[in-house]
Specification:
The protein is of the alpha/beta class. It has 3 domains: 146 residues, Alpha-D-Glucose-1,6-Bisphosphate, Chain A, domain 3, CATH 3.40.120.10; 245 residues, Alpha-D-Glucose-1,6-Bisphosphate, Chain A, domain 3 (3-Layer(aba) Sandwich), CATH 3.40.120.10; 107 residues, Alpha-D-phosphohexomutase, C-terminal domain (TATA-Binding Protein), CATH 3.30.310. The strands form 4 sheets. Strands 1, 2, 3, 4, 5, 6 and 7 form a 7-stranded mixed sheet that branches. The two termini are 37 Å apart. InterPro entries: A-D-PHexomutase_a/b/a-I, A-D-PHexomutase_a/b/a-I/II/III, A-D-PHexomutase_a/b/a-II, A-D-PHexomutase_a/b/a-III, A-D-PHexomutase_C, A-D-PHexomutase_C_sf, A-D-PHexomutase_CS, Alpha-D-phosphohexomutase_SF. Its EC number is 5.4.2.-.
């Protein structure tokens, strides 16, 4: 079927007047000979936005290769069919699978969530829609709190403003974690069958869905406030908070009150949800410039630290004053935050072990993705805890046996696994505030905590190189070239061995990842991004001092760039 025929078939089932008008105009221009319009039309229908372990995520717009109401309807109907199939006889006996749906402040998030609730209810499921736009961690909490069979969060997290997505969690034996294989492929097959039937407009809908009570949000607030009630050192803490135009502040502000922390100075320009993200072109705290307004506010307020959530509040960024950098403020890396929070978790596990009179903490573990700092393993070993390295993403980290804390270097932290089985930037913020307040109580700062960690566990340094591409095949070619001719050195550091995870490795499932172990204990991991058109290299070293670690990571980064340039 040609792109034009596909577009006409799409128009016949699209309930959205905006995308219908967009596609009708594009089709008309293409048929009049507009080459750019024809190319755009081809791109929209040459492929289908893939459903995988990250659910769906992509640019808003008409077409099978975009996020829109047709694609969401097909996804909801496919997920409903999967859940009914899994329920089997119990569904036939009237025990309807339960799905809870949440949404953030991005464009069309509420529309997609309401469509999903109507379609789930129309398919015979019990559907519960969260009462308003809320952080992703509240949805992840709701799946477990309600004993749901599945959860859907409509969000594209920290992606560019014109993106949206569809994130799926499973209950039961999955315990409220994100989907993994084979569930992703089974759901995708059901979605494809719905799409092949060809008429999303004919899918049964019902207004018989429920709206979750406020008591559900209250329960999340109470559970999260209990992560780290404010110690005496919290009094007088001067700090700045930004929600990055997202949905974090309303929920976090209630938790701060309940936990007893002083209110922050707000970055007013970014505190209310706004799907246009007017002050940031890329609403990700990791991106250059994204926290400039927060730093400006911190300078004016004489703050001791800055805390930021990304737009759906599942990630946490932290910054501290540093006269050595331009502007006087420095954002901590995801690894630095993760190692501090892992240290906190290990100490809590050790304290619990001592209180229970045990010689060990049987089964308790720290976990992180294989691209995150190896320093977490050192922390785990220091406290006699188990350690697990997983594939990237909290769909894997959250499944680590006995986990009491998990993190990934991309600003994701799981500090309360008994409550939320996903990264949670709000509970992580509370844990970080508690750690900093405890240090203040003994006259120490966040900078002192970082130094104490280094003195206790060693001088770890990390870096990351990202290559953004317009053509995804470029990433495939680079990965293939590295496999065909593996490097023997990176810069002047010899490669001792390479773990290729394409077919799985040890207890790790298959993944498109190359892990290179270098002389002197350095490490380079290469993988395509799971959510963006990027190839990523993760670099880690351990030095004899802070200066030594800095020197090692700079040399390794230079060598890694040379390696990429040669491909």
């Amino acid at each position: 079927m040609s792109a034009a025929d596909s577009a006409r078939a799409w128009l016949a089932q699209d309930p959205d007047p905006q995308t219908r008008e967009e596609l009708e105009d594009l089709l008309a221009r293409a048929e009049e000979g507009d080459a750019a319009a024809a190319e755009d039309l081809e791109d929209r229908f040459a492929a289908r936005l893939a459903f995988g372990t990250a659910g769906l995520r992509g640019e808003l717009g008409a077409g099978s290769n975009r996020m829109n109401r047709v694609l969401v309807a097909q996804a909801a109907a496919g997920l409903a069919a999967y859940l009914l199939e899994k329920a089997g006889d119990s569904a036939e006996l009237g025990e309807r699978p339960l799905v809870v749906i949440g949404y953030d402040g991005r464009r069309n998030s509420r529309v997609f969530a309401k469509d999903s609730a109507e379609l789930f209810a129309g398919a015979g499921l019990r559907a519960i829609l969260l009462p308003r736009l809320l952080p992703t961690p509240v949805l992840a909490f709701a799946v477990r709190h309600l004993g749901a069979d599945a959860g859907v969060m409509v969000t594209a997290s920290h992606n560019p403003p014109n993106d949206n997505g569809y994130k799926v969690y499973l209950g039961g034996s999955d315990d409220g974690a994100q989907i993994v294989s084979p569930a992703d492929a089974e759901i995708a097959a059901h979605i494809q069958r719905v799409a092949d039937a060809g008429d999303a407009a004919a899918l049964p809908r019902s207004l018989g869905y429920e709206t979750a009570p406020e008591t559900l949000v209250d329960a999340y607030v109470t559970e999260t406030a209990a992560v780290a009630p404010a110690p005496a050192g919290a009094e007088g803490l001067r700090w700045v908070y930004t929600a990055m135009h997202g949905v974090g502040w309303e929920t976090l502000s209630r938790i701060l009150d309940e936990a007893g922390y002083p209110a922050p100075t707000l970055v007013e320009e970014q505190i209310e949800p706004d799907g246009a993200f007017p002050t940031v072109s890329f609403p990700n705290p990791e991106e250059p410039g994204a926290m400039d307004l927060a730093f400006q506010t911190a300078r004016e307020a004489g703050a001791e630290l800055v805390i930021a959530n990304d737009p759906d509040a599942d990630r946490l960024a932290v910054a501290l004053p540093d006269d050595a950098v331009e502007g006087g403020w420095r954002r901590l890396t995801g690894n630095q935050i993760g190692l501090l929070l892992g240290w906190r978790a290990a100490r809590l596990a050790s304290t619990l072990r001592q209180a229970q009179g045990q010689d060990a903490a049987p089964g308790a573990s720290l976990a992180c993705s294989l691209v995150s700092s190896p320093g977490l393993q050192t922390v785990a070993e220091h406290y006699g805890l188990d350690f697990h390295a997983t594939l990237t993403g909290f769909k894997w980290i959250s499944r680590a046996p006995g986990m009491v804390f998990g993190f990934e270097e991309a600003l994701g932290y799981l500090v309360n696994p008994d409550t939320v089985r996903d990264k949670d930037g709000i509970s992580a913020a509370v844990a970080m505030l508690g750690m900093i307040a405890e240090a203040r109580g003994r006259g120490a700062s966040l900078a002192d905590l970082l130094h104490e960690f280094d003195e206790t566990f060693g001088y770890f340094a990390s870096d990351q190189i990202s290559v953004r591409v317009d053509d995804l095949s470029v990433i495939g070619r680079i990965m293939a070239a590295l496999r065909e001719q593996p490097p023997t050195s990176i810069g002047d550091v010899g490669v001792e061995r390479i773990d290729d995870l394409l077919e799985g490795f040890d207890d790790l499932p298959p993944g498109d990842v190359l892990r290179m172990w270098l002389q002197g204990g350095s490490r380079v991991v290469v993988r395509p991004s799971g959510t963006e058109p990027k190839l990523k290299l993760y670099l880690d070293v351990r030095g004899d001092s802070a200066d030594d670690a800095r020197h090692r990571i700079e040399k390794l980064a230079a060598g890694a760039r040379e390696l990429l340039a040669a491909q």
